[in-house]
Specification:
Radius of gyration: 21 Å
Strand content: over 45%
Helix content: 10-25%
């Protein structure tokens, strides 16, 4: 009997060591530097509109809760919006919703386009709930990445890629993003992919044990090639490339820090710096950033006292220092969160965000109108 117990104990220790070895190998694979031939590509930005124009629109919702909107540019000066909605976040009835706006007006009404049962059928595996959608219109197709959970909470999430040929109304299955040869859990997305010489980099992040950015490298057909993590202790990273020296500014949601986290990264792994941005207090909330000039950036973000305030800030020096240009929302105790922002083909800034979890608020404005309070 004592021999059996000793053998059981030894077997248990061996199993634990084997598990530890697998985890370490998995993390080391994820942390491998990528090929240095990857270079960022300059985005094709339209001429910015110069008149003072600003429109605001509440996108209607039939669900009790909405969250995590995302904007993507479509042809013919149309903007696609996705978000998830249901009885509450993480419930099995949550679906991905879609709407299309043009010139500040809804031209394709709000409709549910993806549910957990639908993704289960497409992927061939059980899906319990859905989360953040991210989209990219590329070569006439719309590629959509969505966070999915089969068991547990967001810490066990995976990312599925879907492909649409009708601008996001219906889908065929692309692939599950396998970022590790062993454990493909705790992978989430939130912010837009960035073009490179080899395809795109899709910013992602972990929420289990380690809370770090995860950069997923895609080919020109949006198929995953490899992934790389960065030690940052922050999530929901945003990449803003600098073409001149092939580096990228990183802005990420802090975990325990008091400020939005910033970093400077070279995709060949030769350069990595991280520090908090003192001029951007933040109470662990997501942000959105776009580049409007060589060194000019716009950011939509919360402040340091919850999500009751939502600000638009500008940086004139590539993201080192920031000044609040406009207060978009100011209701302490409420929740205005998870902004998305793009420069549209009309030269206007398009912003969406969660409004009290009741509806998605959409803003279409020119730079002069947005910065009017800062003059």
């Amino acid at each position: 009997m004592r021999v059996d117990k000793a053998l059981q104990k030894t077997s248990g220790v061996q199993a634990l060591l084997a598990l530890l070895f697998i985890v370490l190998v998995s993390l080391s694979v994820l942390s491998k530097p990528i090929q240095p031939s990857v270079e960022f590509k300059a985005p094709a930005l339209p001429d910015l509109a110069v008149q003072k124009t600003m429109q605001s629109l509440a996108l209607p919702s039939e669900t009790k809760m909405v969250h995590a909107s995302y904007i993507e540019q479509l042809p013919n000066n149309r903007q696609l919006l996705y978000w998830f909605g249901g009885s509450r976040e993480g419930h099995k009835d949550v679906q991905i919703y879609r709407a299309v706006v043009q010139n500040g007006e809804i031209v394709e009404p709000v409709s549910a386009v993806l549910s957990a049962p639908m993704l289960s059928e497409l992927s061939g595996r059980y899906i319990k709930k859905l989360g953040n959608p991210v989209a990219k219109h590329h070569n006439g197709k719309l590629y959509v990445w969505v966070v999915s959970v089969s068991v547990g909470g967001w810490a066990t999430a995976k990312v599925d890629m879907l492909i649409s040929e009708d601008e996001g109304k219906t889908f065929v299955y692309g692939e599950k993003l396998n970022t590790s040869p062993f454990f493909n859990i705790s992978n989430l997305v939130r912010n837009p992919p960035v073009a490179t010489s080899q395809g795109f980099i899709l910013p992602a992040y972990f929420e289990l044990n380690r809370l770090d950015p995860l950069f997923i490298h895609l080919d020109t057909n949006m198929r995953m090639q490899h992934a790389q993590t960065l030690p940052m202790n922050a999530i929901q990273p945003i990449l803003i490339p600098n073409i001149k020296d092939n580096t990228a500014k990183i802005f990420a949601r802090p975990i325990e820090q008091k400020n939005i986290q910033g970093g400077l990264w070279n995709p060949d792994g030769s350069r990595w710096e991280v520090s908090g941005i003192e001029s951007l207090p933040n109470d662990s909330a997501d942000s959105a950033v776009v580049q409007i000039g060589e060194d000019k950036l716009l950011m939509v973000h919360n402040g340091g006292n919850g999500r009751g305030q939502l600000y638009l800030s500008i940086s004139e020096d590539g993201g080192e220092h920031w000044q609040i240009a406009k207060t978009l929302e100011d209701q302490p105790g409420e929740r205005f969160a998870y902004p998305s922002m793009i420069i549209g083909s009309d030269g206007m800034i398009h912003i969406s965000y969660t409004y009290k979890r009741q509806h998605i608020q959409y803003i279409r404005a020119t730079i002069p109108a947005l910065l009017a309070e800062a003059q």
